[in-house]
## 1
Amino acid sequence: MKKGVDMMKIEEVKAGDLKPKEFIEQKIREMSAAVGKGFAINALSGGVDSSAVTMLGHKALGDRLKTYFVDNGIMREGEPAGIVALFANLGVKVEIVDAQDEFFRALKGIADPEKKREAVTQTFYKDVFGKLVRKSGAKYLLQGTILTDVDETVAGIKRQHNVFEQLGIDPQEAFGYKILEPLVQLRKDGVRKVAAALGLPESVYNRMPFPGPALAARVIGEVTPEKIKVVRKATVIMEEELASAKPFQCMAILHQDRVTGIRDGKRDFGLQIEVRCWDSVDARTAKPTRLPYDTLERLAKRMVTEVPGVVSVTYNITTKPPVTMEAV
Amino acid sequence: MKKGVDMMKIEEVKAGDLKPKEFIEQKIREMSAAVGKGFAINALSGGVDSSAVTMLGHKALGDRLKTYFVDNGIMREGEPAGIVALFANLGVKVEIVDAQDEFFRALKGIADPEKKREAVTQTFYKDVFGKLVRKSGAKYLLQGTILTDVDETVAGIKRQHNVFEQLGIDPQEAFGYKILEPLVQLRKDGVRKVAAALGLPESVYNRMPFPGPALAARVIGEVTPEKIKVVRKATVIMEEELASAKPFQCMAILHQDRVTGIRDGKRDFGLQIEVRCWDSVDARTAKPTRLPYDTLERLAKRMVTEVPGVVSVTYNITTKPPVTMEAV
């Protein structure tokens, strides 16, 4: 991990000082100028960052931006189709790339969280998106990096994203490639304002963060299609039950540890789901949402009833720091 | 696991119908008659069941009952000395047996919860208490079995306690041995009434259940002296913070799963403690106590601050069933 990344070049725009329309116009001008008559490519995950970048990019470049949605098999219920439909309504064409098998193959046998993230990242960049980039001949990549990502890279909390290497592209050979990161001066609250001003619906601009490794980051230990099925089902229930609380971010995590339960009077050594629901403004610090016990108990009841194998549900009561929002 | 244990012989005495003084007198008469001029032995764990049995036994048999406290190394902070002092105040002499090394040796490398319980049970009965019994020449054993234990044995939730085999005593050779279980008609609420009527202090008769495997049942995965240290410290904090809530039972559980945290701005892949706090009358069913969020947050804050390595704390929100009160 490289230290000493030069952060001096990035001038933070605080959400309070942000004028979304002017910001958008400025970024459109910058991107148009940078890409010129060339064309660009980006990957949409459906999160607020990549959604805002996709809209910005299409406003700046129109059809000269090609947007892909990579279905990695570790998405939430109905995610790929839902996001493509949403952007189609906004006049933006997004192409789905089915890469489920590649991702599950890459995740097989990996329990270490960092190696798991690495496998998802590598598969995405090298095996899937890297191929698309090379095939497309695009020389510009749009990325939804925000200032918090940069902070965490510098602090060594997350791995640094050296995008060229990740794409399997030799920097020598890749001369001319350029990464555009139009949101890098903003934090999450600023991005939400920009996303709203770009005409994205509330379901997107107020969308909870759901980082790249997606449900793979919601499974402690090895990720398998079976475990993804469990945590996907738990996630649907959690999102239904916590929607009205409008949390900054919430998640259901499938533990690797098993705990003792009773089913029909018999011992059942079963699964445990941990629920986290965060109050936060900018993701740098967070507190557990003080959900009513009625909600917590209904949530637990539905999970042990509707998700096969689950016998226990917990709620995280720690602040960030020292815990991070994601468990894995 | 044997099925079809004859439960017909056990006539339940419900707490509501229990007349503690008459019950005590009857049990004293029965034990005196059974033991006659012989002598008996029992092991005190400090829980309400074994404390009540110890008092009953001493009232019935006086010095002809020899009571041992086995220090297995997996007890709570200050437990062995505290309990011996408490009984000394009541005029009952209890001998501490230091068996910490035996237990940690037996637990080494075992992650499976049932094998772990088995190791604790076997070490207790065969290696430690079994030797004491054989050396003492006592022909009578007092045990704190209650009706819920019998139910759970029959249901296959816990393993059946075939005490003779557990003691490493051949039933043939052991002819004449007798197990006395004076509390077997009662459930926990009844035992508490009897314990109070026996003159035990409130700290004992309202003591939360803390089963045999003790802190070993509060560690998911392999039990080591280091992990016991962590969970012991977390247990002290939990008991201090939850004392005023007067829960039926509460516990801090050290998970084997590690989760990501941040310390001093750097990634810290750390430990997770799960807190459980149960509302229950008789342990057959239970609900999570609706602890105030102020309490939960203070608890979490203290654990991540005071217990080295802990970055995350959760609170269990499931009911029994399907979860059991203990995790392991």
## 2
Amino acid sequence: MKSYRKELWFNIPGRRAFINITDEVEGCLKDSGIREGLILVNAMHITASVFINDDESGLHRDYDQWLEKLAPHEPVSQYLHNRTGEDNGDAHLKRQIMGREVVVAVSGGKLDFGPWEQIFYGEFDGGRKKRILVKIIGE
Amino acid sequence: MKSYRKELWFNIPGRRAFINITDEVEGCLKDSGIREGLILVNAMHITASVFINDDESGLHRDYDQWLEKLAPHEPVSQYLHNRTGEDNGDAHLKRQIMGREVVVAVSGGKLDFGPWEQIFYGEFDGGRKKRILVKIIGE
Amino acid sequence: MKSYRKELWFNIPGRRAFINITDEVEGCLKDSGIREGLILVNAMHITASVFINDDESGLHRDYDQWLEKLAPHEPVSQYLHNRTGEDNGDAHLKRQIMGREVVVAVSGGKLDFGPWEQIFYGEFDGGRKKRILVKIIGE
């Protein structure tokens, strides 16, 4: 069994964004030389997500508005978590909806994807350096 | 390390449905000959889910009504995504709540499940052929 | 390839709670002797979650209030599932938001975590013995 590990770093200027990371993950897979196995891609921070969906800008704005409705940022005083001095209580909730991680099959040396699947980093509390982990195991 | 791959195809007549796929996934596991490892089962489409819960028809109707409340199909004009000509903006949101994939342990050649765990395909934008992926790695 | 399996049991006195299980999972990893691979930690019951987030009591109360808003326990008659004689319809919904499972990378014999990541058992229908599964594969 082979294994491969890499961290990918981000520094999103605003509070929230969705970034397509499919090419970077494919680059990791190529580097690993693994042809059959599983890839785990996970946020290493607890106010960010990794998820798979469509690379369509209207949809991303729909996600942003929907998450803001389900877990609004303002007023920050509505979250007990923010009594610690943070203002990111909403980001911890949004991340649970969108998920921490994806696991993707590796078949024939490729990400084994359906026609529209793309991997995204979802940032809900940006403005600083944060990272995700790519771990691949297989042969 | 052994690996196994199979696609399962669906063509749901209506817009939404939950289909129990536990037997098909168990069939894949038997075919694979793998006794210890992990199974990944994921939707290959971005308006569908694979999830684990109870095979109880009342619960499935509860899920449907709840998802419709959290991310209503109508009016379709409420989703920017639908400006692309689609009417499935809601389906992309519902799928995030229910999840893309499950990872299940394989122990002694069986799905390592608690007493009520069953695997479901969740369709949120049916009426056409769609598929899921079963990938198994182990020994 | 090595594999390791262990069940962790819980008996939460009230209806809902979040329990930090990071130390128990780390203990499993140590027992397994696996240095590179993947850990799957999943609820074996369908009204409970395993998730990764922050060990901060204010945040946990925020989660509880938020889940109660998205899928209220009362009135129990609002859920068709409860016509089976159960009163836990809400717990099946809450568990979908928080997730069934996490997959964590194992690197150099350790849980490959970011600075604040901790693993939690989320109970939404307590008052009886329930369990989670820890499955590790790797080398």
